[in-house]
Write a structure and sequence with these properties.
MetI-like fold, 0% strand, 11 helices, mainly alpha, single chain, 234 residues
Length: 234
Protein backbone atom coordinates (compact mmCIF):
# COMPACT_ATOMS: atom_id res chain seq x y z
CA UNK A 1 0.00 0.00 0.00
CA UNK A 2 2.87 2.38 0.84
CA UNK A 3 4.33 1.69 -2.61
CA UNK A 4 1.10 2.84 -4.26
CA UNK A 5 0.80 5.93 -2.05
CA UNK A 6 4.40 6.94 -2.76
CA UNK A 7 3.78 6.42 -6.46
CA UNK A 8 0.66 8.60 -6.35
CA UNK A 9 2.48 11.33 -4.43
CA UNK A 10 5.28 11.38 -7.01
CA UNK A 11 2.72 11.29 -9.82
CA UNK A 12 0.89 14.37 -8.54
CA UNK A 13 4.25 16.09 -8.01
CA UNK A 14 5.10 15.48 -11.68
CA UNK A 15 1.74 16.85 -12.79
CA UNK A 16 1.76 19.99 -10.67
CA UNK A 17 5.44 20.82 -11.28
CA UNK A 18 4.90 20.66 -15.04
CA UNK A 19 7.04 17.62 -15.85
CA UNK A 20 7.92 17.95 -19.53
CA UNK A 21 7.59 14.27 -20.41
CA UNK A 22 4.13 14.01 -18.87
CA UNK A 23 2.76 17.05 -20.67
CA UNK A 24 4.32 16.16 -24.03
CA UNK A 25 2.61 12.76 -23.92
CA UNK A 26 -0.69 14.35 -22.83
CA UNK A 27 -0.43 16.90 -25.65
CA UNK A 28 -0.10 14.12 -28.24
CA UNK A 29 -3.26 12.46 -26.91
CA UNK A 30 -5.23 15.69 -26.93
CA UNK A 31 -4.09 16.67 -30.41
CA UNK A 32 -4.81 13.35 -32.10
CA UNK A 33 -8.12 12.78 -30.31
CA UNK A 34 -9.31 16.33 -31.05
CA UNK A 35 -8.47 16.06 -34.76
CA UNK A 36 -10.01 12.61 -35.17
CA UNK A 37 -13.17 13.61 -33.28
CA UNK A 38 -13.53 16.79 -35.36
CA UNK A 39 -13.25 14.80 -38.59
CA UNK A 40 -15.67 12.17 -37.26
CA UNK A 41 -18.15 14.94 -36.44
CA UNK A 42 -17.87 16.46 -39.90
CA UNK A 43 -18.69 13.05 -41.38
CA UNK A 44 -20.99 11.58 -38.74
CA UNK A 45 -23.39 14.47 -38.10
CA UNK A 46 -24.49 14.82 -41.77
CA UNK A 47 -24.84 11.04 -42.13
CA UNK A 48 -26.83 10.81 -38.89
CA UNK A 49 -29.04 13.69 -40.05
CA UNK A 50 -29.70 11.99 -43.40
CA UNK A 51 -30.55 8.68 -41.72
CA UNK A 52 -32.89 10.45 -39.29
CA UNK A 53 -34.99 12.19 -41.92
CA UNK A 54 -34.77 10.04 -45.04
CA UNK A 55 -36.09 6.60 -45.81
CA UNK A 56 -34.36 4.66 -48.56
CA UNK A 57 -33.73 1.12 -49.61
CA UNK A 58 -30.97 -0.43 -47.53
CA UNK A 59 -31.33 2.03 -44.65
CA UNK A 60 -31.81 -0.74 -42.09
CA UNK A 61 -28.68 -2.43 -43.36
CA UNK A 62 -26.67 0.77 -42.97
CA UNK A 63 -27.96 1.28 -39.42
CA UNK A 64 -27.19 -2.35 -38.56
CA UNK A 65 -23.63 -1.99 -39.83
CA UNK A 66 -23.14 1.20 -37.81
CA UNK A 67 -24.47 -0.48 -34.68
CA UNK A 68 -22.07 -3.37 -35.22
CA UNK A 69 -19.16 -0.97 -35.58
CA UNK A 70 -20.04 0.55 -32.21
CA UNK A 71 -18.90 -2.66 -30.53
CA UNK A 72 -15.85 -3.20 -32.75
CA UNK A 73 -12.76 -3.86 -30.58
CA UNK A 74 -9.99 -1.32 -31.10
CA UNK A 75 -7.44 -4.04 -31.81
CA UNK A 76 -9.59 -5.31 -34.70
CA UNK A 77 -9.77 -1.81 -36.17
CA UNK A 78 -6.01 -1.53 -35.71
CA UNK A 79 -5.42 -4.89 -37.40
CA UNK A 80 -7.57 -4.02 -40.43
CA UNK A 81 -5.95 -0.62 -40.88
CA UNK A 82 -2.49 -2.08 -40.30
CA UNK A 83 -3.07 -4.51 -43.17
CA UNK A 84 -4.10 -1.59 -45.39
CA UNK A 85 -1.39 0.90 -44.41
CA UNK A 86 1.63 -1.37 -43.94
CA UNK A 87 4.30 -1.49 -46.65
CA UNK A 88 2.83 -4.67 -48.12
CA UNK A 89 -0.71 -3.27 -48.04
CA UNK A 90 -2.56 -1.43 -50.81
CA UNK A 91 -1.79 1.98 -49.27
CA UNK A 92 1.76 1.20 -48.18
CA UNK A 93 3.23 3.66 -50.68
CA UNK A 94 1.75 6.50 -48.66
CA UNK A 95 4.11 5.65 -45.76
CA UNK A 96 1.51 6.39 -43.12
CA UNK A 97 2.42 3.64 -40.67
CA UNK A 98 3.76 4.79 -37.31
CA UNK A 99 2.67 8.36 -37.85
CA UNK A 100 0.16 10.61 -36.14
CA UNK A 101 -1.85 10.57 -39.37
CA UNK A 102 -2.32 6.81 -39.08
CA UNK A 103 -3.49 7.23 -35.49
CA UNK A 104 -5.96 9.91 -36.56
CA UNK A 105 -7.34 7.59 -39.25
CA UNK A 106 -7.77 4.78 -36.73
CA UNK A 107 -9.48 6.97 -34.16
CA UNK A 108 -11.66 8.48 -36.87
CA UNK A 109 -12.90 4.97 -37.74
CA UNK A 110 -13.67 4.36 -34.06
CA UNK A 111 -15.43 7.67 -33.41
CA UNK A 112 -17.48 7.99 -36.60
CA UNK A 113 -20.07 5.27 -35.84
CA UNK A 114 -20.58 6.67 -32.34
CA UNK A 115 -21.13 10.23 -33.53
CA UNK A 116 -23.36 9.03 -36.38
CA UNK A 117 -25.61 6.80 -34.27
CA UNK A 118 -25.89 9.28 -31.39
CA UNK A 119 -26.73 12.01 -33.91
CA UNK A 120 -29.42 9.77 -35.35
CA UNK A 121 -30.84 9.18 -31.86
CA UNK A 122 -30.60 12.86 -30.96
CA UNK A 123 -32.41 14.08 -34.06
CA UNK A 124 -35.04 11.35 -33.78
CA UNK A 125 -36.06 13.01 -30.52
CA UNK A 126 -36.53 16.44 -32.08
CA UNK A 127 -40.14 17.52 -32.59
CA UNK A 128 -41.17 16.34 -36.06
CA UNK A 129 -43.02 19.62 -36.63
CA UNK A 130 -39.87 21.77 -36.55
CA UNK A 131 -38.82 21.14 -40.15
CA UNK A 132 -42.22 21.49 -41.88
CA UNK A 133 -43.05 24.53 -39.73
CA UNK A 134 -39.82 26.22 -40.77
CA UNK A 135 -40.56 25.47 -44.43
CA UNK A 136 -44.10 26.84 -44.03
CA UNK A 137 -42.71 30.07 -42.60
CA UNK A 138 -40.61 30.57 -45.71
CA UNK A 139 -37.31 29.02 -44.66
CA UNK A 140 -35.15 27.39 -47.30
CA UNK A 141 -34.40 23.64 -47.05
CA UNK A 142 -30.97 24.50 -45.63
CA UNK A 143 -32.48 26.85 -43.06
CA UNK A 144 -35.05 24.25 -42.04
CA UNK A 145 -32.29 21.68 -41.60
CA UNK A 146 -30.35 24.16 -39.48
CA UNK A 147 -33.46 24.71 -37.33
CA UNK A 148 -33.60 20.98 -36.63
CA UNK A 149 -29.90 20.88 -35.74
CA UNK A 150 -30.36 23.86 -33.43
CA UNK A 151 -33.20 22.10 -31.62
CA UNK A 152 -30.98 19.08 -31.03
CA UNK A 153 -27.80 21.07 -30.39
CA UNK A 154 -27.22 19.83 -26.83
CA UNK A 155 -27.73 16.21 -27.84
CA UNK A 156 -25.42 16.68 -30.82
CA UNK A 157 -22.75 18.15 -28.56
CA UNK A 158 -23.16 15.14 -26.26
CA UNK A 159 -22.67 12.83 -29.26
CA UNK A 160 -19.42 14.59 -30.17
CA UNK A 161 -18.20 14.52 -26.57
CA UNK A 162 -18.97 10.79 -26.40
CA UNK A 163 -16.96 10.23 -29.56
CA UNK A 164 -14.01 12.08 -28.02
CA UNK A 165 -14.25 10.01 -24.84
CA UNK A 166 -14.23 6.80 -26.88
CA UNK A 167 -11.00 7.55 -28.73
CA UNK A 168 -9.14 9.39 -25.97
CA UNK A 169 -8.83 6.28 -23.83
CA UNK A 170 -8.26 3.65 -26.53
CA UNK A 171 -4.95 1.79 -26.79
CA UNK A 172 -5.20 -0.84 -29.55
CA UNK A 173 -5.26 1.51 -32.55
CA UNK A 174 -2.64 3.81 -31.05
CA UNK A 175 -0.21 0.99 -30.36
CA UNK A 176 -0.65 -0.82 -33.67
CA UNK A 177 -0.67 2.21 -35.97
CA UNK A 178 1.42 4.69 -34.00
CA UNK A 179 4.22 2.48 -32.74
CA UNK A 180 4.63 4.37 -29.43
CA UNK A 181 7.41 6.66 -30.72
CA UNK A 182 8.65 9.05 -28.05
CA UNK A 183 7.64 12.71 -28.53
CA UNK A 184 5.70 11.79 -31.66
CA UNK A 185 3.12 9.00 -31.40
CA UNK A 186 3.39 8.08 -27.71
CA UNK A 187 0.09 9.07 -26.10
CA UNK A 188 -1.35 8.59 -22.64
CA UNK A 189 -2.52 4.99 -23.04
CA UNK A 190 0.58 3.68 -24.79
CA UNK A 191 2.74 5.75 -22.46
CA UNK A 192 1.14 4.13 -19.41
CA UNK A 193 1.83 0.64 -20.77
CA UNK A 194 5.40 1.51 -21.74
CA UNK A 195 6.41 3.32 -18.57
CA UNK A 196 4.89 0.65 -16.32
CA UNK A 197 6.74 -2.10 -18.22
CA UNK A 198 9.99 -0.17 -17.58
CA UNK A 199 9.27 0.09 -13.89
CA UNK A 200 8.54 3.84 -14.08
CA UNK A 201 5.49 3.42 -11.86
CA UNK A 202 5.19 7.07 -10.84
CA UNK A 203 5.27 8.35 -14.42
CA UNK A 204 2.73 5.72 -15.45
CA UNK A 205 0.47 6.81 -12.59
CA UNK A 206 0.84 10.46 -13.55
CA UNK A 207 -0.27 9.68 -17.08
CA UNK A 208 -3.13 7.58 -15.69
CA UNK A 209 -4.33 10.42 -13.48
CA UNK A 210 -4.42 12.79 -16.46
CA UNK A 211 -6.21 10.18 -18.58
CA UNK A 212 -8.85 9.56 -15.92
CA UNK A 213 -9.32 13.29 -15.32
CA UNK A 214 -9.94 14.03 -19.00
CA UNK A 215 -12.17 10.95 -19.38
CA UNK A 216 -14.20 11.94 -16.32
CA UNK A 217 -14.54 15.49 -17.62
CA UNK A 218 -15.77 14.19 -20.99
CA UNK A 219 -18.32 11.92 -19.30
CA UNK A 220 -19.57 14.68 -17.04
CA UNK A 221 -19.91 16.93 -20.07
CA UNK A 222 -21.92 14.27 -21.88
CA UNK A 223 -24.19 13.87 -18.87
CA UNK A 224 -24.65 17.64 -18.52
CA UNK A 225 -25.49 18.03 -22.21
CA UNK A 226 -27.93 15.12 -22.08
CA UNK A 227 -29.72 16.75 -19.14
CA UNK A 228 -29.85 20.09 -20.97
CA UNK A 229 -31.19 18.31 -24.04
CA UNK A 230 -33.94 16.54 -22.10
CA UNK A 231 -34.97 19.82 -20.45
CA UNK A 232 -35.11 21.64 -23.78
CA UNK A 233 -37.45 19.02 -25.23
CA UNK A 234 -39.85 19.05 -22.24
Amino acid sequence: MDYILRGLAQAFLMIFTGDGEVYRIAAVSMKISAISTSLASLAGVPVGFYLAFHRFRGRRGVVTILRTLLAMPTVVVGLVLYSLLSRSGPFGALRLMYTQTAMVIGQFVLASPIVTMLTLSALAGVDKRVRPTALTLGASPFQSDFAVLREGSFALAAAIAAGFGRVFGEVGVSMMLGGNIRHYTRNLTTGIAFQTSRGEFSLGLALGVILLTVALTANLLVRFLEMKSSKSTD
